[in-house]
Known about the structure:
The complex is a heterodimer. Chain A is 0% helix and 52% strand.
Amino acid sequence: DQQVKQNSPSLSVQEGRISILNCDYTNSMFDYFLWYKKYPAEGPTFLISISSIKDKNEDGRFTVFLNKSAKHLSLHIVPSQPGDSAVYFCAASEDNAGNNRKLIWGLGTSLGVNP
Amino acid sequence: KAGVTQTPRYLIKTRGQQVTLSCSPISGHRSVSWYQQTPGQGLQFLFEYFSETQRNKGNFPGRFSGRQFSNSRSEMNVSTLELGDSALYLCASSSPGSGSPLHFGNGTRLTVT
């Protein structure tokens, strides 16, 4: 049973607009969340993370929002660029210090940004 | 700084054989984790090694094993291969310290026929 769910397998947006990728989780013990981006034939690349003691973390064009009561997090990319086209993975762990390398992953959302 | 290097990139084996995959972490990284990626299951945690000791383990059968050497390089071994072991095997390294993200290699694509 998937403990981390990304219900949208794919998403298409126009260049310059906002991309919103969603992730839901079921395990209330999760307290550290990460987003990774993956291009074909490459390994995942870390984007941004958030601890459960926060509800928002921002890094440049990327912002992650966490709603603990809803067990939901989202990644916002503003403005979206064609180079952002990739598969985005949400991952979670039971360690808000971020020391736990055992991550539980969603199945990914393929984002396409159209010029 | 060189990234995480995994060898080989591609491998074809037959059922019943065994296979060894290799991972060289980023210089200075002492933690190495292994993941299996399949289309239906996504990325699943195999195990993590730190300072030559297995620190954490996922829910895989004993046919999957690993080790880490004193230079932090790691190997993963799968014995008695099954068709379902066909997957992309990803290695990731990380530096000590809380919040340090995983840095992944490009993976080894294993096909079992």
